[in-house]
Amino acid sequence: MAELNQFYQLVTIADTGTLSKAAEIVHISQPALTRSIQKLEAEWNVTLFDRQKNKITLNQTGELAVQYARRILDDVNTMTNAIQSYERSLRTISIGSCAPGPLLELLPELTERFYGMTLASETVCVENLLPGLSKGIYQLIITDTEVTAPDVLCCPFCSEQLYLTVPPAHPLANRKDGIYLEELAGETMLLFKEIGIWKNRVISKMPQTKFILQDQDEAFSALIQASALPAFASDLTLKHNHHRGEQTHRLTLPILDPEAHVTFYCSAPKSHKAYLPGQRSL
Amino acid sequence: MAELNQFYQLVTIADTGTLSKAAEIVHISQPALTRSIQKLEAEWNVTLFDRQKNKITLNQTGELAVQYARRILDDVNTMTNAIQSYERSLRTISIGSCAPGPLLELLPELTERFYGMTLASETVCVENLLPGLSKGIYQLIITDTEVTAPDVLCCPFCSEQLYLTVPPAHPLANRKDGIYLEELAGETMLLFKEIGIWKNRVISKMPQTKFILQDQDEAFSALIQASALPAFASDLTLKHNHHRGEQTHRLTLPILDPEAHVTFYCSAPKSHKAYLPGQRSL
DNA sequence: GTAAGTTACGAGCGACGTAAAAATG
DNA sequence: CATTTTTACGTCGCTCGTAACTTAC
User: What is the mean pLDDT of residues B247-253?
Assistant: First the structure.
């Protein structure tokens, strides 16, 4: 049987024009390449090269063979890529979430339950989640509304309550019963950039408040510790930080607006039903 | 590099369901097949089979790989077919003619001039000749009219004069100066089936004459020798038969109608200019 | 003289087959 | 107990590289 090796050699000869140069590229000696090509010709019982004493040139049949060989090598290449990335995708759970908070809950659970799998998560615009699930870009999505779609299972997952964190010396520090968003008018706040739906639910309703954006996770934490500015947090982030042993002297004041409380839903295709997490207390 | 051999083995395993059966088909021992597949998996760094202790089953990645492998093996197959038949076509001159006579002139010349090439000739409907030349079905065509087409060279080749042959005892035997077609009304004649344009030029103008058709070359010759019926011949066929040493006691009477004389033209693509024959006396 | 291609020859490595082991039904 | 797969091991054969030869520029 002709082999891909020989196709590669043939194409390389076509590219370089001589056996010697091709032999270097394919990492065999030039006589070995001669033999390999001769064997291919014998196998097919055709002549691929015009042979002069110290020169070979592709003949018409050879040119045709090179054309085909190129295409097949290309196909084999895309084949291996497809197979390898498919295998990788089988070992990866891709999660799309409309907010970062629920991921703090979800990822540890999945890490534990699916040991060995790779978890890939991102916070994206909520409109992209269901289409992404259908296309297989995500195997699991977190939304702030219930999802109804064919072959998709949806269940409530957890809720998130927004808080304001301020240093003890801050003027608002005495409002431990909670405050309203509109009271933050005129303030300057620290804000994490990738907050998903919170942007529309909360931030867009605070035109009078100035925000300093930070898009790096760790930098944001450091910034909060070092700064006297108020910032948002949530029960989920606070729990997560506490769990990580992170110390803070900041005070946490619940946000009293109804928008500050969200229930999240987790959805997966029926084929990936197993990925759905257990429900947290809402 | 993965090799076609392994693709074949993979597909065969998919087809048979077990390594043992597949090993028989691909003519290696079963352990060798195990190793070969393991090597493929290592090469790609993927798992293609679910392995139980004495059973292997294609997993999803494996199914995908088999799909691709099938397609690539198919492609390689069509590739080798294409290459081999292209090579064959390079060694073959395919000739289409509108009448059998000129081939008697042409083939010997080409045989001599292109020793080693295979000649393939057929008598076909004149309308198919130029399209056939364009499509590469023919490298040389013989027509009864001059051909003008881009990238096609055309030259007059030879002429053919129709004769009537009759046994000496036939009533028409004394008409050695020639006769007209219409005088054959009411006769029964022997006729070779594959006569190309002669059918339209001559036969269709003889509604009163009855023809006994014969489509095998040798049988037709024998039939003529053994029969008392008149038949058509031409200067070309007569010369050919004489050249072959064929003896006949038949008399030959020229047909006097203008349709009984034809000039033939030979045409070839410019790329196959060398195939054009020298001109015969017209 | 240099560079290229084919042929000859000997060696090493890789793939093969046999044999053995383990597991399943 | 038959069937299937995997592992172990020794051997054979294939392909490789070196060397020598020929030819061309």
Answer: 91
Q: Is A4–B8 a contact, with Cβ atoms under 8 angstroms apart? A: no
Cα B144 from Cα A234, distance rounded (Å): 94
For A46-69, what is each residue's pLDDT tens digit?
Answer: 999 999 988 999 999 999 999 999
Q: In chain B, positions 35-64, which contact chain A (CB-CB < 8 Å)? A: 44-47, 60-61, 64
Nucleotides of D under 7 A from a protein CB: 3-8, 15-20, 22-24
Tell me the CA–C1' distance in angstroms for B26 and D3.
Answer: 20
Select from 3.30.565.10, 3.40.50.1370, 1.10.10.10, 3.40.50.720 the CATH code of B4-82.
1.10.10.10
Greatest C-alpha distance within chain A:
97
**Positive or negative torsion for Cα A232, A238, A244, A245:** positive
Q: Looking at the C1' of nucleotide C5, which residue has the nearest alpha carbon?
A: A54
Residues A260, A162: contact at Cβ < 8 Å?
yes
**What does the alpha-carbon distance between residue B45 and residue A113 come to, in Å, rounded to a whole number?**
24
CATH 3.40.190.10 domain extents, chain A: 89-157+263-275, 158-261
Which of B91, B54, B260, B18 has its CA nearest to residue B160?
B260
Write out the two tokens for B68.
């691709």
* Model pTM score: 0.74
For strand C, is any atom closer than 7 Å to the CB of A176? no
